[in-house]
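In the laboratory, one determines a bound structure by crystallizing the protein with its ligand and collecting diffraction data. In a computational setting the workflow is compressed into a single prediction: the sequence and the ligand go in, and a structural description comes out. We illustrate the idea with glutamic acid.
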Amino acid sequence: MDETNAFDNAIKQLESASKFCTCDRNLVEILKYPQKIIEVTIPLQMDNGKIKVFTGYRVQHNNARGPYKGGVRFHPAVNLEEVKALSLWMSMKCAVVNIPFGGAKGGVIVDPKKLTAHEIEHLTRGYIDKIFEFIGPMKDILAPDVNTNAQTMAWIMDEYSHISREHSPAVVTGKPVDNEGSLGRDTATAMGGKYVLVEYLKTKGLDIQLLSVAIQGFGNAGYNIAKLLHEEGALIVAIADSKGTIYNETGIDPTAAMKFKLKHGSIKNMPESIEIKTEDLFSLNCDILIPAALENAIDHKNAKNIKAKIILELANGPVTPEADLILKDKGVNIIPDILANSGGVTVSYFEWVQNLSRDYWTLEVVDNKLKEIMLKAFNDIHDFANLKKCTLREAAFALAITRICLATKNRGILS
Ligand code: GLU
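The predicted complex, in structure-token form:
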């Protein structure tokens, strides 16, 4: 059995959690299929005059609870099974935090590190031209994901507004603050992760100031969680980016690491730290492990070497179902992705509300609302897991499935 097919993995998670749901099994069956799969080709004239043709996807998994919602990633390893899985996880995530969205995801097969800014802009616009009729503020709302950022979102807003001849900021979230983006959206994924981690530690009577953390991935989520946990007094002992992994048992300053990365393109060779193999990051003697990169980082091979007792999944799908079972047997507690990283889409929801109401909130308002939603979601899931004697992942999925199935039932299945 291929452990790396992300969609098969998502279905396994759905099935294992549905045992704990009281809703109609027939309705759960619907969730195993995305509602719509869009595949497009995007011809792009490169700066040297040559034409290259790229493939892009938008998968709309479920909209029973509201318009489709989810990010777009630019990565050479993007494939349809992955985008399908990510779209299913988005439906679950929005239901976990109880925001009125369904789930979708987009991806373009491209290594943006090999493209100029001008080429990336035109690729982004080309992608939007191709999926234009399927997206919109009340249909499907895009957002950043791996290798896309606020600038990419500004191009998306501009292209969509240009084609529709209407100013349409609410078609995409994660925009620059100067272009009606929300305050706090850039740090929201990590902030939400911090809130649930701190709450989780409280339930275990653990003091964050005495805990060490290893982080795989040093993009938006990885960097910001490192910074936030460092500020809380945790010891960041290891960080990996796509080019190297650094370790320092006395602690790494995330701000200094980011400065170094911006100057040298990677944290590799950062002074006062030693270089270790990325694989060794997972077997480090630390308390908390945070995968914040791509799917399947923790599989049946490296799961058995994990010594950390807590995993905070900031990436989507970083632990395979096989690894999940091994870790459960070892007594490792996992705070699952659909809860741990849902702060991002929660502040995306706030951004969408602000765009539609034309009324903008302070950072304090955004932060308080985010905290309230994250703590409620955590406590609901934690209580459910205790009651049903299941994992936090099973509890999170079960609550999400129940909410989506209820919405489906009320609307009518054939609608
Ligand atoms: N790409 C992010 C995620 O996987 C954010 C999605 C959004 O804000 O819509 O959760």
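The longest strand covers residues 51-62. Keep in mind that any predicted model is a hypothesis to be tested, not a measurement.
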